[in-house]
Amino acid sequence: MYIKGKIKKDKKTKNLTKRLKSGDIAMICHKDLDEIAATSLVEKKIRCVINTEKTISGRYPNRGPTILSEAGIPIFESIDTEVFDLIKEGKIVEIKDNKLICDDKVIGDCQLLDDKAIENQLSIGYENLEKELDLFIENTLDYAKKEKGLVTGKVPIPDIKTKMSGRHALIVVRGKDYKRDLQAIQAYINEVHPVLIGVDGGGDALLEFGYTPDIVIGDMDSISDRCLKMSKEIIVHAYTNGKAPGLERVEELGLEAIIFPSPGTSEDIALLLAYANNADLIVAVGTHNNMIDFLEKGRSGMASTFLVRMKVGSKLVDAKGVNKLYKSHFKLKYVIGLGLAALIPILVITMMFPPMQELMQLIKIRLKIMFGI
């Protein structure tokens, strides 16, 4: 296989996808490529992926490689991890006979991860799933003891300007199928006008659909500057000791932010925020709520999610997969029916027009003569 193109690289795939253009070669450093990252790469219509980590380690059955393969995007794995630093971004590179070439020099070797290799690694992942599940449960229970303050009220909720009492709150996370689910509930958003809360990149998802976030919340590592500037209120997720790495970025943009120190994930504290501010209903789009989601996110347990959902469950509606509930199909009979219905008033008005009545009388007389009536 021979491939040639401009290389774009980043050790964080979510940062790289912002710079990719159609036809680029994406160089990543992403162990166990997850579904969300793979889908983002596919959307950019790249030529191929070069990964300096194991795309499938066999620890669990991650779907990312399958998504790339189904989209016809080849995946190459580099044996030499130093390759990542040897090639500058923007360089034209070639892949020929499993050799990575730049400026007519062989930089290193790379191996194509074909469908058979993906299938083999996935089967190992499924075999290891029971072991991972045991570890996952143990970690979840262990951390649940430490994070129980999330439901006992020991985590202080910051005061915010946005009024939620008696209103619906829509919390958007960039999780699986978030675009399709967000599209499916647009009628709800336009009719109910819920408080719009974007969790990190979820804020950009709202902008993409034409909505301005009322609140963005998170550690600010995957949200655009544009979204931060447009959002009405910014809440930075901080560690329990009060340290908030994301605050520096917000302040560099000359913006104000509220600090929310808490254990757990940013989507967890977004749910807590809406609940504590007496939202009448909380609708969640794209949130992570199962083991594979959390393993792909790099978390070994879901203690905070488990605890938070126990607390807010009476008000929570999870919109994950709502796009699959109903799929509209174009039916010709409906169009014909509408057409006939539209013709009826036209015919009635036409028949009431005097010249048309005279014409109908002439036609009637002509028919009588023809048939001898």
UniProtKB/TrEMBL annotation:
Protein's UniProt keywords contain Transmembrane: yes
Residues that span the membrane, as ranges: 334-353
SUPFAM superfamilies, per database record: Thiamin pyrophosphokinase, catalytic domain
Any one GO BP annotation for this protein: thiamine diphosphate biosynthetic process
Gene Ontology terms, MF aspect: ATP binding; kinase activity; thiamine diphosphokinase activity
Keyword Oxidoreductase: no
Keywords: ATP-binding, Kinase, Membrane, Nucleotide-binding, Transferase, Transmembrane, Transmembrane helix
Domain SteA-like C-terminal: 320-370
A Pfam family this chain is assigned to: SteA-like_C
Full protein name: Cytokinetic ring protein SteA
Organism: Anaerosalibacter bizertensis
Gene it is expressed from: steA
